[in-house]
Amino acid sequence: MKIEELEKELTYKAKHVYEEIDEEEKNLLEKIAKEYIEFLSIVKTERETVEFGKELLEKEGFKENDFKKGYFIYKNKFLACWKLGKKPITEGLRIIVSHIDTPRLDLKLHPLFEDTDLAFLKTHYYGGIKKYHWVAQPLALHGVVAKKDGRIIKIVIGENKEDPVFTICDLLPHLAKKIQAEKKLSEAIVGEKLNVLVAGIPVEGKDEKVKEKVKLKFLELIYKKYGIKEEDFVSAELYIVPAGSAREVGLDRSFVGGYGQDDRICAFTSLKAFLEVEDPEYTNLILFMDKEEIGSEGNTSAKSRIFEGIIYNLIKNSGLSSTADNFFNIMTKTKAISADVTAGIDPNYMEVHDKLNDAKLGFGIAVSRYTGHGGKYMANEAHVEFLAWLLKNWDENKVIYQVCSMGKVDEGGGGTVSKYFASYGMDIVDAGPPLLSMHSPFEIAHKGDLYMTYKAFKTFLKV
User: Fold this and answer.
1) What is the mean pLDDT of the chain?
2) CA 216 to chain centre
3) Are 274 and 207 part of one and the same domain?
4) R_g of the chain computed on alpha carbons
5) Record's family (predicted)?
6) CA angle, 51 as apex, 48 and 54 as ends, to 5°?
7) Residue 247 lies in a domain
8) How far apart are CA 65 and CA 81, in angstroms?
């Protein structure tokens, strides 16, 4: 055998998506990317993601809690949807789980204050952010206010062209030498100074007893539009997020740039794949979880018992006894994907990447056999038999993928929800597209990876 043939036969070489797909698939790729950009531009909170999913599911004939083709929503921040397969549920399920929360700024319980005739909203950051990312850029307000009379008032300000936007002011470089420039990057912007500028005109009238007239003007405006008072902030979920639409990035339009791609890119692709799979062999279950970015705490997260309730209901409605034995027997036959993004190699920061093992943008869905950090702490590690089965099916269906880790061993790491689901006994692996600028207000994904993630999920749900 010639050396060239030997090399081709025995060595591994990653494949670029655009070098492997034909014009028909490139057209489909662009269509999916356009749909994704529209989704990403309007869906910026967990509640908005659930609302989007519910609308799409009902349009496709899914009914709440229907046994054969149904969905379940909990607290408006968790969504599950399923369709029964040809094989009985005792043969196991095909599960894809992603998370729909994203790093952001939450308003504090008592957020509104006035200082030097300017009105601000105080925030508390949610999830892992670099605080300097959030200053000096246009911001929008998304969320809901729960009134004592039971009404839920939805608020979105800063997304329409006619809307005002908000911002967090930065300090000019002329005055920033001691307070910012001489400090570590992580200390230059402190959390308590992530105050959002919201108003600067005093309320009309000259009553000297009223001291905070700009704050009162803000309250007057928000009361006229939404009927809420200052006390209503206590029972509100109001988030500060980047304003504006997702965009194509690059002169060749090869990337999608926008907020919240970790992990709504996996939510979007898994839901789209799920809706397109007809008559699956195994029961398909898609889960959209909350609170992953803060350790999966709370009753809408992967640590909650809500997943067990869904499985027990499926068991019961299948005519089986809803016993722990049946539950765990089904789990041991279940195959799952923890659909989450990973860090793509950024050539500007090669000192933290392992070039041989980390994911490259444009080379397909990234499969992380294990997560965690250091000595694989806090990690799930997929069994190789399951990984080989999955990759064989992807090969047969021409899915372009790469198997990767995330960064050099001692540089850090990350976790996903897979370890919580692995505890039930199912086979599960992490897979999703690599991103640049992850956890920033403007994350970057490659269209080729977006498309291959959708294709990989669709293949998995079929087999």
Assistant:
1) 95
2) 36
3) no
4) 24
5) Belongs to the peptidase M18 family.
6) 150
7) no
8) 9
> Count of CB atoms within 10 A of residue 115's CB?
11
Q: pLDDT value at position 415? A: 82
Find all residues with CB under 8 Å of 80, minimum gap 6, and list them: 71, 72, 285, 286, 287, 288, 307, 310
Q: In angstroms, rounded to a whole number, what is the distance separating the alpha carbons of residues 406 and 434?
A: 10
Read off the amino acid at residue 396. E
Q: Which amino acid is at 441?
A: P
**Rounded CA separation 102/111 (Å):** 21
In this structure, what token pair is assigned to residue 73? Answer: 């929503």
Q: Going by DSSP bridges, is the β-strand pair 335-339/93-99 parallel, antiparallel, or unpaired? A: parallel
Q: What is the mean pLDDT of residues 125-152?
A: 96
DSSP 429: E
The reported pTM is: 0.95
Reported as a single tens digit per residue, the pLDDT across 197-252 is: 999 999 987 777 778 999 999 999 999 999 999 999 999 999 999 999 999 999 99
* Dihedral (Cα; 412, 139, 199, 211), 10-degree rounding: -30
Q: Are residues 88 and 69 in the same domain?
A: yes
Q: What is the mean pLDDT of residues 273-292?
A: 97
Name the β-bridge partners of 121: 112, 196
Q: Can you tell me the distance from the alpha carbon of 204 to that of 212, in angstroms, rounded to the nearest whole number?
A: 12
The answer as to whether 124 is a domain residue is yes
Contact 426, 308 (CB under 8 A): no
Q: What is the CATH number of the domain that holds 123?
A: 2.30.250.10
**CA gap 81, 62 in Å, rounded:** 8
Q: Which helix (H) or strand (E) holds 25?
A: helix 23-42
* H or E segment and range at residue 146: strand 139-146
